[in-house]
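Suppose you are handed a protein chain with no further information: no name, no annotation, nothing but its sequence. What can you learn? This example shows the usual starting point.
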Amino acid sequence: MLATEVNALLESKNTGWMFSVQGEGRNFQIEVVSEDFESMTRVKRQQAVLRLIADEIAAGTLHAITVMALTPAEKSAREELGI
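A reasonable first move is to predict its three-dimensional structure. Written in structure tokens, the prediction is:
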């Protein structure tokens, strides 16, 4: 798969979240930004994102997935630090 295909797959779930995907093959880094994450722990955020692609992971289409799930404030703070 290509990063654009994974991004399109995530966008098709209509979560309203903002996705940024990098990688290729079966290995991807997914950054997700949403206010929905305000009340969630880091693990719950990752689980919410991984649920969106659970079928592809189970089928082996996607394998090594890294998820960075942030609130808009966290994303802004990271950008200010140059991360």
